[in-house]
User: Which sequence fits this backbone?
């Protein structure tokens, strides 16, 4: 599973943080390891320099063999919360989609 983390120019880059986040995403999606080919993570700052609560948004798209890509987004006060929230939503969406597939068979 290839995980790519991207951030807009308003979110400071931090390779240590990105490594930790990649590991957390990998752990959450571990049971889908054989089915997921790519995961794209996009982090953006909604309010720019104005700040505010929950102004960071993370969207995650997981490409899965046999079904269309599954995507989810979440917002948070910091990058970690936004990414973890979006990862949880992707896991729920994958459970739902793959459960529908197994029900058909």
Assistant:
């Amino acid at each position: 599973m290839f995980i790519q983390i991207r951030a807009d120019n308003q979110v400071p880059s931090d390779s240590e943080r990105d490594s930790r986040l990649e590991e957390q995403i990998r752990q959450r999606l571990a049971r889908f390891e054989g089915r997921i080919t790519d995961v794209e993570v996009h982090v953006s700052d909604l309010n720019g320099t104005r700040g505010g609560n929950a102004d960071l948004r993370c969207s995650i798209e997981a490409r899965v063999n046999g079904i269309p890509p599954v995507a989810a987004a979440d917002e948070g006060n910091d990058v970690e919360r936004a990414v973890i929230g979006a990862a949880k939503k992707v896991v729920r969406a994958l459970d739902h989609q793959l459960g529908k597939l197994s029900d058909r068979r």
In short: The first strand starts at residue 2 and ends at 7. The chain has a mean pLDDT of 87. Helices lie at 15-28, 79-104.
